[in-house]
Amino acid sequence: MKALESEKELEKSSNIRTLIPYLDEHGVLRSRGRLENISAVPKSARTPILLPHKGRIVRMIVRSYHEKYLHQADNVAEERIRFHRLL
After folding, report:
1. Which residues have C-beta within 8 Å of that of residue 73, sequence separation ≥ 6?
2. pLDDT 10s digits, 71-81
3. How many domains does the chain have?
């Protein structure tokens, strides 16, 4: 985060370097990619928010979807989360 805040290049060992991360105008960590230039795709899908792999908010989202879909297999909740572009 410090490298992005000071507009420096990320270390080569960074797990998110290949995602072309940047901080948006609100300080939210997002990813750039090929979809960024396609206006037919909503901005939220073109530049998805990057969440920490083991973060509390991620656990809460997964738990919520797991309960919403009646405790089906983990891959069902994961597919629904990806469908809603949250993971």
Report:
1. none
2. 677 677 777 77
3. 2
Are 32 and 67 contained in the same domain?
Answer: no
Residue located via tokens 């469908």: 83
3-state secondary structure 19-83: HCEEECCCCCEEECCHHHHCCCCCHHHHCCECCCCCCHHHHHHHHHHHHHCCCCCHHHHHHHHHH
User: For the whole model, what pTM was predicted?
Assistant: 0.61
Co-location of 16 and 31 in the same domain: yes
- Greatest alpha-carbon span in the chain: 45
Q: Which of 62, 56, 55 is nearest to 86 (CA)?
A: 62
Output the pLDDT for position 7. 65
State both tokens at 84: 């809603």
CA 85 vs CA 4, 13, 15, 61, 80: distances in Å = 23, 26, 20, 12, 9
Report which of 54, 86, 19 is spatially closest to residue 78, judged by C-alpha positions: 86
